[in-house]
Every structure is written in structure tokens, then in C-alpha cells.
Amino acid sequence: MVQKKLPLFIKFIVIAILFVGNGFAYSQSEGLKTNIVNGANFLDTQGNVINAHGGGILKVDGFYYWIGENRHDDVLVSCYRSADLVHWEFRGNLLTRSSNPELANANIERPKVIYNETTKQFVMWMHYELSRDYSYARAAVAYSSNIEKPFTYLKSFRPFGNMSRDCTLYKDEDGTAYFLSAARENYDMMLYKLTDDYLDTKEQLATLWPGGHREAPALVKRGEYYFLMTSGCTGWAPNQAKYAYSKSISGPWSELQDIGNTTTFDTQSTFILPIEGNKTTSYLYIGDRWDGKQYFNSKNIFLPLTFQNDTEMELNWVGTLLPNILTGELLTP
Ligand code: GAL
């Protein structure tokens, strides 16, 4: 009897796994979902709202790790992981106010993490403020040998003496890493090359669009071109995103061009994730839909970035999204 029933049971398990593989996202307002629902709260697998704002995603050993701002209690940076970019499991807090005396009263924004193959360490760069007035304008660095475990806080500083606010990290194909951050009261976007251990800036490479007043940088490479997306500077309020492209990261970069609608669909850029599959490579835009009055009411929005040709990038609104990490496709069910 048991032997006869077993195949049916196995079939059920296989179907269940396939469903999970296709991804269920949980939305607080609408219950169980089969895909990402933009505009709803993204919940983790325990049903809690995901706190990973201003964050980024990196792939490690088959899992996508989403690391970003968490302002609850004494937490500063949290880590979630997912096998399908839809179900996110909370894995731990990477930085808290007690990680280091310098963090006790700090405001940490836009943390990004990359892996250093030589030192075998995950390195985090972020925007550091001592209080809410944004006058400290520093970069800060932390590291850990385990992406899910607390990071060791190293220091905060102004790269080459420059102010440093909204920022991102980029690790190139050859292992060289770069830090981009808004300097001179956000008028200039600076590009720095990092030292081989990624723990410091080695060289000030370029000032991108001097006086351009850009922030929220997100950088990706596709084919022969780097694409850099940024927002204007209107605090928590959304504005028209722009992008530029270049064959060399240090430039010359193209003129800035509009992308998305005039409010970037009520979001501000934080990261672009390439999803490399066996059929195609897609590019996932991760934006923050900030609520400046009630920070914890802020949302994340995941949208597909598409390309008309080698240099034309487009961002369009989709209400629902289903990444297929095997084929690399971003489906819009
Ligand atoms: C935005 C910035 C956010 C946060 C906010 C505070 O311009 O991108 O990360 O700093 O200002 O007003």
C-alpha cells in the first residue's frame, strides 16, 4: 500500500518544489503571491517586512544575498537571502549600534557589499553620518569572512578629503573594485579605485558630471558598456532618474539621459542586478520608494531594465514580476 502511494506523494512534493521554485512572494495586503508585487510590502519568509533599503544584492554559493539599511531598534544593516529572488529569508544583522563605538549614534545609509577573492573577505562600504543633519558626509568600511555573520567595522573617513554621501560599490570583471559617491554638497559624483584588499581608496579617478548634482548611483556593465544610473537631489522625494554609458569606467561618459518617468515610478535607484541564466541575462532595477515622513512605510520596487541596443536603456513599470533565475528571464505575469 505504502509503496503504491509513494509515487503520488513524490509527485506532490515535486509539484510543490516547482511552485516554490517559481516563487511565492508574500504581500501584507494581498496574502500569498506567486510573484513580486510592486507597491506592496515585501515580506520575508517569517512574514516580517523586509528592511533592506538603499541596499544591494550579490550572489554567493547559489544564493542571492540582499543587504541594506535596517533602522529598527539598534540595527543598522541587515542581511536576507533567497534562491529565487522572490522568497527572502532573514539571515541576520551585519552591523548594529554596538558593533563599534563609532556606530552608537551613527546614521548608516546605502550599504553595499562585494567579495574579495584574495583576502576571502566580504567588504562593505556605506554612507556614514554622525547624526541626522548629513554634515559629516563620510564613507565607512566594514568586513567579514562570512556574509551572514556580523561585520567588523573598520573606519569612517572622507576619501581624499572629499565629502561622501550617496554611494555605491562596483567590482569589475578583473577584480578591480570602485567606489562612487556624491561629493561637494552632492554637486559632484566621484569615482575612486579601491586598494587591492578593497578596504581603502587608492586613487581618485574621475569627477563625473561636475556640478551635475546627482546621487543614488547604481552601476552595471552590459557587453562593452558600463551604465550608471543616478537620481537628482530632492531628498526623500522622487525625481527623474538619468543614466549615462561609457566603454571605460573612468570615462568619457555619455551625456545624462532621462530614464523611466518623471518620478522614476516613485522610486530612487539603489542597485542594478544582472541575472545571468542559460537563455539570457536580465537586469533587475532595485529602487527605494521612500516615505520620508514614516521611514518604515518605505517600500522596495523591483523593475526590469531593458535595452533597445548597445547603449539605449529603458525602465518601464510592471505591477508584478517573476524572475526565472535558471533562464535569466524576468517574466511579467
Ligand atoms: C536622499 C538619499 C537617501 C537619504 C535621503 C535623506 O537624497 O538618496 O539615501 O539620504 O536623501 O533625505
Order of helices and strands: HEEEEEEEEEEEEEEEEEEEEEEEEE
User: Roughly what percent helix?
Assistant: under 10%
Given this structure, which CATH class is correct? Mainly Beta
Number of domains: 1
Q: pLDDT average, as an integer?
A: 92
Major sheet description = 4 strands, antiparallel
Total number of helices: 1
Structural class: mainly beta
* CATH 2nd-level architecture: 5 Propeller
Query: What's the Cα radius of gyration?
Result: 20 Å
Overall shape: globular
CATH superfamily: Glycosyl hydrolase domain, family 43
Low-confidence stretches: 1-6, 11-32
Q: DSSP strand (E) fraction?
A: over 45%
Query: What's the β-strand tally?
Result: 25
Give the strand order, joined by hyphens, for the main sheet: 4-5-6-7
Our measurement of the CA-to-CA distance between the termini, rounded to an integer number of angstroms, reads 41 Å
Q: Which compounds are bound in this model?
A: beta-D-galactopyranose
At CATH level 3, the topology is: Tachylectin-2, Chain A
Structural write-up:
This protein has 333 residues and is mainly beta. It has one domain: Tachylectin-2, Chain A. It has one helix and 25 strands. Bound molecules: beta-D-galactopyranose. Beta-D-galactopyranose binds next to β8 and β16.
